[in-house]
């Protein structure tokens, strides 16, 4: 379980950072008509988010999270800054032995 939690923590941060980069790329695309960054960051974030989903579901199954808790963690990778908060909550709850 420790390995699954570590993988989740790493991916939560990676997806969070790339989501912030995606927001910057979107601003550049629509505000400054510079769409090149979206062509690079968009697919990378999508690929990393897919990995985040798999790793999150794996951890949810191992820790017996509720469906609601699992869905909230999965959605956290789509809202800027939320994946960082979700990572903290998952680590906190796991240390306490409380399922999500």
From TrEMBL:
Q: Where in the cell is it found?
A: Cell membrane
Q: Where is the DUF3817 domain?
A: 5-90
Ranges that cross the membrane: 12-32, 44-61, 68-86
What is the membrane topology here?
Multi-pass membrane protein
KW Ribosomal protein (keyword) present: no
Q: Which UniProt keywords apply?
A: Cell membrane, Membrane, Transmembrane, Transmembrane helix
InterPro entries from the entry?
A: DUF3817_TM
State the NCBIfam families in the record. integ_memb_HG (TIGR03954)
Its recorded name reads Membrane protein
């Amino acid at each position: 379980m420790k390995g699954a939690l570590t993988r989740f923590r790493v991916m939560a941060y990676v997806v969070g950072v790339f989501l912030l980069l995606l927001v910057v790329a979107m601003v550049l695309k629509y505000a400054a008509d510079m769409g090149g960054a979206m062509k690079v960051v968009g697919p990378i974030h999508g690929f990393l988010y897919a990995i985040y989903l798999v790793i999150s579901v794996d951890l949810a199954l191992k820790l017996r999270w509720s469906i609601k808790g699992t869905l909230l963690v999965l959605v956290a990778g789509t809202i800027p800054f939320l994946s960082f908060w979700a990572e903290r909550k998952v680590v906190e709850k796991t240390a306490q032995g409380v399922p999500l």
